[in-house]
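Input structure tokens:
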């Protein structure tokens, strides 16, 4: 090999190059490499710590997400329950009001029927008394004599029956 033929000429140069490289390596190892290696170690530790923190934060976020979903489901369940209870309560109130209204209507109808019956009875009583008086007066004038009590009663009853029948016929029509 032709490059190595001249080693004898450059022998001292190679020796001093090796010595210089050794000294430079020693100085670098003693003063430069430790801070660089420490910086690399610290950076590696920081990166590992950041990765662990990010994994921990990711797990916490996942846990929080699950908890929030469960809370949201529970809230939806409670909301549905509240809505159902409100609807049930509204139905109960509506039914109660409907029953109360129906009871009031029945009472008003009953009161009206009683009032109508009372008015009818009163009217019939008035008609009986007017009819009785009219019948007795007209009969006395017609016969020009006074009737005894039995005849008066019989005439009044017949007249009242006729008037009642006429009133009922008119009322039905």
């Amino acid at each position: 090999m032709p490059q190595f033929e001249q080693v004898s000429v450059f022998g001292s140069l190679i020796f001093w190059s090796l010595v210089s490289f050794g000294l430079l390596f020693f100085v670098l190892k003693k003063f430069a490499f430790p801070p660089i290696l420490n910086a690399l170690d610290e950076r590696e530790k920081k990166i590992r710590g950041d990765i662990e923190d990010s994994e921990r934060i990711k797990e916490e976020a996942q846990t929080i997400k699950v908890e929030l979903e469960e809370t949201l489901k529970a809230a939806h369940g409670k909301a549905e329950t509240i809505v159902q209870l409100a609807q049930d309560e509204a139905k109960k109130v509506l039914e109660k009001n409907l029953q109360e209204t129906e009871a009031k209507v029945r009472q008003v109808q009953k009161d009206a029927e009683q009032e109508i019956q009372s008015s009818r009875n009163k009217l019939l009583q008035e008609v009986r008394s007017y009819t009785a008086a009219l019948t007795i007066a007209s009969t006395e004038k017609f016969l020009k004599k006074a009737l005894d009590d039995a005849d008066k009663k019989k005439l009044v009853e017949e007249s009242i029956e006729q008037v009642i029948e006429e009133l009922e016929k008119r009322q039905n029509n």
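The radius of gyration is 62 Å. Residues 11-172 form one domain.
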